[in-house]
Amino acid sequence: MSSNQERLMQVLRAPHISEKANRVAEKHNQVVFKVLRDASKPEIKAAVELMFNVKVKGVTVTNVKGKQKRFGAIYGKRPDWKKAYVSLEAGQEIEFLAND
Length: 100
Hints:
100 residues; four-stranded antiparallel beta sheet; 3 helices; Alpha-Beta Plaits; alpha+beta
């Protein structure tokens, strides 16, 4: 495996599951992922196509700011992270929950 493929395998951190993610999945045929903070749109597109064997139409990214949180008397901050909305070509789909 080349170093480029190793990088692509690390770009996607996890699928982002939320009510909004489910809504865009049904309405716009998009999938939402948590990705590395330094990942570019072409890298995200290549990673999704490599890992899930689907055709990607486009990628939109959002930088999410970490929330300020309080743990008792100590104030803390959750880390910032990057979210990618991946639009799939018509007829393509990614199934995260295997129906066994």
